[in-house]
């Protein structure tokens, strides 16, 4: 029997806020920032759409799904909304370059953008009952999604979920997708609650996918597909779990906090505290490196040492040992010891690999994960001298790196509190530069400029389908293009 205690109705509060939110309620600088987040997410999709694992995903999904109205980014193919949302999300997550939330890790663009594109194209019906979707509506729904996912995560202490082996974004993602689509559909609060209730019961994702499985790249896609499915079902009258977030028995927060050792085990108020005043958009981090976020402190520490001690750090053969101290969550996420053969997925989730590449090539971008890189003997020789260890005194992204050199008694040491993009966010201009550099080799300059123009002027766009059309159509393969860029 359910507890007689009456929890705070945070699900309803969240849904009422979503339903009532208008673009005029949102500070101008937040709206602007979201346009740049959208641009960054689209860049990630465009460069990953034709990678080998993305091609395998398309081939597999299209053996099961029929054609439809919804475009697949980077492909001259269309399919149904759920399959398109799944694949487009997989592409955004396809090369570990997409955004993440610093407190409640979720790759929001990989949830929000595929949801919106699929919803817009699937509902492409020229009737009075289904008017065209304008850029302002698209942008408002995106903001709802960027806010909802992290807030749901904060209710279970955000990054804590990773420590216990859940793929956090895949857990928080279904609610974000459902909220995004429900806002686009202009559903009332009670129906939004149904959508989130249907979405949350489909949440799942195991972090062990990080080692060798390409399924890791698809897990946000599962969340996107499930949330969009939930919104479509609720829109058509299917009822969902009410109070799904806060219910003590079988509720989302209570179940995904089991065994965390916290008191209280979960904090429902964090889902709604400061709605409309405290914007989680401010804590969405745009990545400068093509690897999992917890490796970024490692990269930054070594980069700082390379700047301070250029001669010593350039003599890689004289490095006797590197010791990387990490927090518990970082150690579990990226401190594991890689073994040969290593897949690109595993390499991008490994601090050891990221450290070796930073030392050997001075950057950790797409080119550093090309198949030939994974087989380098000098890389593996260096990785054998890099050791990660857990330090319970360190928190979150904090890391301390010690480089021991032959003939030098004292190690070179660097402490990083938070990595680049996290402690100091990338500027909108930085994001624009990243967009242009990432996409330069995979789409032509005319297409690049057209997408950029639409996204940065979304409020004025009358029919957002023109963005979807520009995203469809074949893109280049970054490995075949000899892709190499510094951000």
Automatic annotation (TrEMBL):
InterPro entries linked: MmgE/PrpD_sf, MmgE/PrpD_sf_1, MmgE_PrpD, MmgE_PrpD_C, MmgE_PrpD_N
Pfam family for this entry, one: MmgE_PrpD_C
Domain of life assignment: Eukaryota
Ranges where the MmgE/PrpD C-terminal domain occurs: 289-459
Protein name in the entry: Uncharacterized protein
Protein family: Belongs to the PrpD family.
Occurrences of domain MmgE/PrpD N-terminal (ranges): 12-257
Organism this protein belongs to: Cylindrodendrum hubeiense
GO molecular function, one term: lyase activity
Transmembrane segments: none
Cited PANTHER family: 2-METHYLCITRATE DEHYDRATASE (PTHR16943:SF8), 2-METHYLCITRATE DEHYDRATASE-RELATED (PTHR16943)
